[in-house]
Design goal:
Strand order of the largest sheet: 4-3-2-1-5
Largest sheet: 5 strands, antiparallel
Helix content: 40-55%
Number of helices: 3
Radius of gyration: 28 Å
Low-confidence stretches: none
Distance between the termini: 85 Å
Order of helices and strands: HHEEEEEH
Shape: rod-shaped
Mean pLDDT: 83
């Protein structure tokens, strides 16, 4: 009885490959939307931030140094730290804006 049921099952040789192609395509699509696209958006936002830095902004460098932008010279930024102490860093080393609101002072 069981052997007759198995003999009547349709052969799945041709449709198996299309199912695998669809599965791999779906995996690639999921990886794009959950991994690649957010990373590209983050990089674009960081580039826009670095390009929009202007004199007087309070910023934080990648190394954690807090300072006020004193001047911008091409791809470098001069930060005023405290009491006239100035350092020169690359624009790409500035990681975030540090506003007075975020600091908790008025």
């Amino acid at each position: 009885m069981i052997s007759t049921i198995l003999l009547q099952a349709p052969a799945a040789g041709g449709s198996g490959i299309m199912g695998q192609v669809f599965l791999f395509g779906a995996i690639i699509l999921i990886m794009y939307f959950f991994m690649i696209r957010p990373q590209q958006k983050k990089q674009k936002d960081a580039k826009n931030f670095v390009d929009s830095i202007k004199k007087g902004d309070l910023v934080v460098t990648i190394g954690g140094i807090h300072g006020k932008v004193y001047s911008i010279e091409g791809e470098t930024v001069i930060l005023d730290l405290d009491k006239g102490l100035k350092i020169k860093v690359e624009k790409s080393a500035v990681s975030a804006e540090f506003s007075k609101k975020a600091n908790g002072t008025k």
